[in-house]
Amino acid sequence: MADKLSPYRRKRSASRTTEPVPAEGPLPQGNDDTFVIQEHHARALHWDFRLERGGVLVSWAIPKGLPLDPKTNHLAVQTEDHPLEYAAFEGEIPAGEYGGGPVRIWDRGTYECEEWTDREVKVVLHGERAQGRYALIHTGGKSWLIHRMDPPPVEGWEPVPELIRPMLATLGQLPTPDEDASFGYETKWDGVRTVVYVQGGRARLMTRNDLDVTAAYPELQALGKALGATPVVLDGEVIAVDPATGRISFAALQPRMHLRNQAQVRRLAAQVPVTYCVFDLLYLDGHHTTGLPYRQRRELLESLDLRGSHWDTPPYTSGGGPDALSAAKEHGLEGIVAKRLDSVYEPGRRSRAWIKFKNTQTQEVVLGGWKPGKGMRAGTIGSLLLGIPGPEGLDYIGQVGTGFTQGMLDDLYRQLRPLERKTSPFAGALPSADVKDVHWVTPKIVGEVEFTEWTPTGRLRHPTWRGLRPDKSADEVTLESLP
Known about the structure:
- By secondary structure, the protein is mainly β.
- The chain has helices at residues 6-10, 221-227, 250-257, 262-271, 294-303, 321-330, 406-416, 432-435, and strands at residues 34-41, 45-53, 56-62, 74-78, 82-83, 91-93, 101-116, 120-127, 131-140, 143-148, 168-171, 183-188, 192-199, 202-207, 232-240, 274-284, 287-288, 311-312, 317-318, 335-340, 350-358, 362-372, 381-390, 393-400, 439-440, 446-450, 453-454, 460-461, 464-468.
- The protein is elongated.
């Protein structure tokens, strides 16, 4: 009879790994009723599903773990049979060895076998976390599918949502002293609003205008691995730090926002790493949490203890708005956001339940045209013509000609040239001096400026360019402060 464990032994050495490596000989006889699922952080996170059968553990690697939704099948890749002793194995497989990385038992228990053929295996699992009827269906070679035959294991269970648009804050004043205790106060981060969907240990990142930016931030994939089999949807902000000042900087994040070339992405990830600041929890382990009060969502979020090399859950304070705003200003932060402690999460809505307060004047703008540069800027962009959508169309609010790096100018020129048009996109007539030599463009691109104040005529005074906002669309732009 062929030695079922010879492929297993060929891939391992007892002198280099703590995994059980039994000597050749007769296989132990069991009851063919043990199962184990091990979470394996090897080169790629996966779960090893093992069923006792004929003196060995017949094994499959499942990249996304057991499916809980009978409408969704997961890939299962059959691997070599493992010894029965492996059902108790937890530990670190040394780097460089086959399957190098940490292994921990995710669940174990007993199973009943309903069918076992070369084409299909049907079992009923009786574990602490894994319960119910499952079928493994052979699709060819080492490839199988694992399918849940029972309904979801928890009443009211829902799959991870494909899309939840972020709730937005309104600009306002600090709550009055008698209302202060009804609000929680968070830092307003100067970055890119991002919703993170984690399922099967994989993270998917979406901006507020439904742009998938997963590939742009590879360092955040480890967040999915940290959560493992726990499915969640998180709301937060991707930020970067200026290495020269040590402060959070939107300008420092700019190079990371536009890249798709993976070689460039990896290089910049080492030079300008990002951090994901998590401040809300929208879905957890089969249940939407958007209908829960803010205070309860924060409690659930903090119970996940999401703190790592590239992500954090910054604290919030209950009450104490004036002190929170002063502390933000003292540390050079953009501002704070006040959130009603009893408020639910309103996807895609700008709500008065969340109020933002800024230490600096910034404004999102739509680009309607550009003027050629002169002198040192000859051959590139000298200034940008800015607008904000209004009742009659795009309202003109002035020009910006400072705050650009050469990289920003090159990027702007590349994006604006294909959008050139012959007529002005602005709703009204512009001053004659402002239209001289202008290259009009279709108003699709959004940027952001910092400025000192509004003029009486509704123009920005002393604006400085902060960067492009590919995470936002032109129809989303609104006034951030009143002219």
